[in-house]
Amino acid sequence: MEQNTFPPEVEMIGIVKKFGDLVANDHIDLCIEKGEIRALVGENGAGKTTLMRILFGLYKPTAGKIRIRGKEVSFNNPHDAIAEQLGMVHQHFMLFEDLTVTENIIFGREPSQVGFINHKRSIQTVSELAEKYGFHINPEAKVSSLSVGEKQRIEILKTLYRGANVIILDEPTAVLTPQERDELFKVLRGLSSQGKTIILITHKLPEVVELSHRATVLRRGKLVGTVETKDTTIEELARMMVGREVFLTIEKPLAEIKQPVLQVKNLTLTGEHGLKTLNDVTFDVHGGEIVGLAGVAGNGQTELVDTLIGFTRADRGEIILNGKNITHESIATRRAQGFAYIPEDRYRRGLAITESILENLSLGFQNDENHSSHGMLTRRAAYQWAKGILDEYDVRLSSPEETAGNLSGGNLQKVILAREFSKPVNFILADQPTRGVDIGATEYIYQQIIARRNKGDAILLISADLNEIMSISDRILVIYAGMIVASIPINEAKEEDIGLYMSGSTIKQKVD
Amino acid sequence: MDQDKLKAPIETREHSFFHSITKKWKDAIPIVLAILGGIIIGGVMMLVAGHNPFTAYTALLVGAVGEPYNLAATLGRAIPILGCGIAAALAFKAGLINIGGEGQLVLGALGATLVALFFPPGWFSIIVALLVGVIFGGFWSFLSGFFQTKFRVPILISSLLMNYIATGFVSYMIFAHLIEPGGSRNQTPLFPEATRFAKLIPGTTVHWGIFVVLFIVVIVGFLMFRSVAGYELRMFGANREFAEAGGIKPKRMTHLVMALSGGIVGITGACQVLGVYYRLIDTSLTLPGYYWSGAMAAILSNNNPIGMALASIFFAAVQTGASGMERATEIPFELSYVVQAIMILLIAVRGFLKPVPKETL
Asked: Which of A274, A482, B97, B119 has the most CB atoms less than 10 A away?
C-alpha cells in the first residue's frame, strides 16, 4: 500500500470551510490510498462531517483542492462526486420503505428498455452485485421488512451499484447491535480487500482500532494528525481528540439500593396498526441505582418515555412515582411529584433555541419566588439565579441573555441538565443524555448523573449506545419489541449476552 | 492549559445589553429592506402600466399625511388594524395561526350592535356593548381552538372557514331581524346618541375607541414580556413540545389564547360600530380587510407589539394614501394591497437567510 506508484485514491489539500465567522475546516490535508480503511475521528463539531460533505460535493470548500486518483476535481453537487466513483452512506438511511431491495438499489439508474424498467434484468444485476461482494440479501424483499443492519447493507450496495470505489460512511454503527456491527465490519473488510476505499466517520474509538488501517484525528476544525492504527491505542487517540487525558472508565462506589421510587406495572400501549408497542412492561427503579435500558432503536423506547413523562397515555397498566399513581396525571403533576426529564432530542423537547438561555432555564420555575411575584416576572432575580446555576453546571457563555441557538450541543445539554437537576426531584429519566455531545461534556454528564445516584435518587437511563449503558448502569434492562426481555445486574452483564437479547433471538428460541 | 481550552465555549459574545440592542437593530434590517422592496416593485409595476411612479408616490404621501384631514383618516383607519394586529400577534406568538379575524370582527360588532340597539342609551351600555363584543368574538375564536384540541382540526383551517359562517350569519341577522325600516341598504338603524363614542377630532373617523385599542396594545405588549402567563405563551409558541414537556398544559393554553385573541378582535369590531358608523352596515368591516392588514402588520413585525403598532399605522397610511393616489392619478386603490403583500412576501424570504446551525457541522 505504501510503496504504491499510483496516485492516491483521494487527496484533499488545504481544505478550508467557513460558515460565517465559524471556521469548520481549517487547512485540512487528507491523503487516502486505494483499498485503505480510513477512520476520521473527532468530537462533535470537530469538522469531520463537514469535510466529508465537501468531498461528496454537498458543500463547496472556501479554499483548497481535491484530487481523485490524481485528477483535480471540483464538485458542484453529489452527482459530480458519484460520477468520480464516490459514494456516501448517511447516518439516516435514504430508502423507500415500501419498495423492494432491487427497486431501491436501481433507483435513478434503472436498466430500462424503451422507457420501461426491465425487472428481470434489474433483479439479476442486483443479485450478481450482492454475490460479488458477499452480501446476503434477498433482492425481492421489501425494505420495510428488513432489519437496520440489512438496510445499511442496501445503502452500501446502492453506492456500489452506482460504481463507487470510495465509500464514505457517517457514524455507521450508531444504530446497530454488536452482532450487526460485526457483520458490517466483515463486509467492509471484504470491500477493502477487493480494492474499495472506505472512509469511516466515527467517534467510537474501539471500532477505529478494530477496523481501520489508519486514523485521522480532527479537533475543532484542525487536523491533529494521522496515525497507523496498529501503532496506536485507544488512549492515544482519545488524547489526540480531546487534547488531554480522558478517563474512559467511570469510577463509582457500590450502589446503595433504597426504596423503589418509580414502579411500572403491566404498562401496555397499542400503536397505530393494532401492534403492541409496549407489551406488559413491568419494572422498578429504586433510589440509589441507575437502571440502563438497552435496546435497538425502535423497540418501544420512545413509547415508554412518552408514556412515563405523560405525552402518551397507556392503554393498560400503572405508573407509580413516590407512592402516587401518576398514570392519568398531567405532565405538570408528574413533575411536581419529583420527575426530571432529559429528552432524547434536545432541540425538539429540551429547548426553545430561538429564546434566551435564561428563558430556557426558567421553564418549570416560573412560579417560584425568585422568578415572579403576583404573576409578574422578576427578571433581575431570575437573572441572578440563572447565573448561579449556569456556573454550578459549568455552562460557558457570556450572559444568560444569550440566545440558546448560539451555544454548542454540549453546552446546551448542560443547560438542560442544570434546569432539570435544580428542581426538587428524585427520579431522573435520562433519554440518550449524551447524544451528539463531545467526550468532555459526556464525562461531565456521567459524573452528574452518578452524583445524583450516590445522593439516593433513582435514574432510568435510556441509550442506544451499549457502551454507555455498560459503563454507568447498576442494572440493565433489555427491551425488545415492546417487552422487557432481560434484567441483569451489572456485575453479571456480558456484552454478547445483551446483544443477543437486543436482537430478540432469545425470544425467537422460546417460540421455536 | 489544554483543559481550559476545551471548556472554553466557541461562542464569545458582546455584553448582553449591547448585544440585545445591536441584535434588535439587526432584526430591523430585513423589515426595512422588505418595505423598500415593496415600494420599488410597486413603482416598477406603475412604470410598466405607463404611470410615473414618482408622481404616484407623491400623491400617495400627500393622501396619507399631507393634510390634517388625511392624517386623521390615516389614524382612523389605523384603529381597527391596530386592534386586529395585536390580536393576531398574540395568537401568532403562541404559534396559533388565527386567521378567523373577519368572523370574530363581525360577530363582535353584532354583539355590540344588539346591546346598543336594545339596551337603554348611556355610557353603561357602551361598556356592556364592548364586553359583549369581547364575548362574541372570543367565543367564536375559542371554538376554533377547541376544534383543534378536541377533533384535531387545525386552527388554520377552522378559523378561516368559520369566517364564512360568521359573515353570512351577520348578514342574515341584519337583513332578517335588525334592518333599518324603510332603508335601502342592508344596515341597522343608527344607535342612540348616548351609546356612541365621541369623535376625538370632529368631522373625522378618529374617535375615543382609539384609546380602548391603544390600551389593549400596551397591556398585551407588557404582559407578553413581563408576566408569567406571557412567558408561558412565548415558550409555547417558540417550541410547543418543549413547553409541554416543561409542564405547560397545551389545551388550556390553546383555548385561552384563542379566546383572548378573538375577544380582542371582537372589541375592535365593537369600537368600529360604536365610533365610526354608529350602526352595523353589512360588509363594512370585511371589505376594507382590516384583519388581514392587522395580521400582515403582525407578521412584518415578527409579532412584536411596538413594531406591530408602527406597521399598522404604516399600512393604514399606505391605504388612505392610495385613495388619494387614485383620485390624483389613474392608479387604482388596490395597488396598496399589492404593495403590502409584496412586503410580506419579502419578509418571508428571511427564512432563507438564517445562519447554518452549528450542530450540522
From this structure: A482
Residues B16, A409: C-beta atoms closer than 8 Å: no
Single residue among A191, A217, A242 that ends a domain in this structure: A242
Cα B2 to Cα A28, A239, B5, B7: the distances in Å are 21, 11, 5, 9
Residues of A in Cβ contact (< 8 Å) with B358: 22, 45, 408-409
Q: Are residues A40 and A74 in the same domain?
A: yes
pLDDT tens by residue, B97-127: 999 999 999 999 999 999 999 999 999 999 9
Contact A377, A347 (CB under 8 A): no
User: Which residue in the block uniquely carries the three cell numbers 393494532?
Assistant: A274
Among residues A300, A340, A342, A309, the alpha carbon closest in space to that of A327 is found at A309
Q: What is the residue-wise DSSP string for B283-331?
A: TTTTTTTHHHHHHHHHHHTTT-HHHHHHHHHHHHHHHHHHHHHHHHSS-
ipTM above 0.90, yes or no: no
pLDDT digits (tens, 9 = 90+) for A257-310: 889 999 999 999 997 667 789 999 999 999 999 999 998 777 899 999 999 999
Domain that holds residue B168: 53-346
Q: What is the pLDDT of residue A246?
A: 59
Name the residue facing B229 among A19, A375, A397 (closest C-beta). Answer: A375
Number of residue pairs across A and B with CB atoms under 8 Å?
A: 139
Can you give the residue range of the structural domain that contains A379? 351-423
**Alpha carbon of A155: minimum distance to chain B alpha carbons (Å):** 21
For A168-221, what is each residue's pLDDT tens digit?
Answer: 998 888 777 788 888 899 999 999 999 999 999 987 788 888 999 999 999 888
**Total number of domains in chain A:** 3
The DSSP line for B126-177 is HHHHHHHHHHHHHHHHHHHHHHHHHH---HHHHHHHHHHHHHHHHHHHIIII
Distance from B233 to chain A by nearest Cα, in Å? Answer: 11
Q: Say which residues have a Cβ less than 8 Å from residue A480's Cβ, sequence separation at least 6.
A: A295, A296, A299, A501, A502, A503, A504, A507
Q: What is the CATH number of the domain that holds B81?
A: 1.10.3470
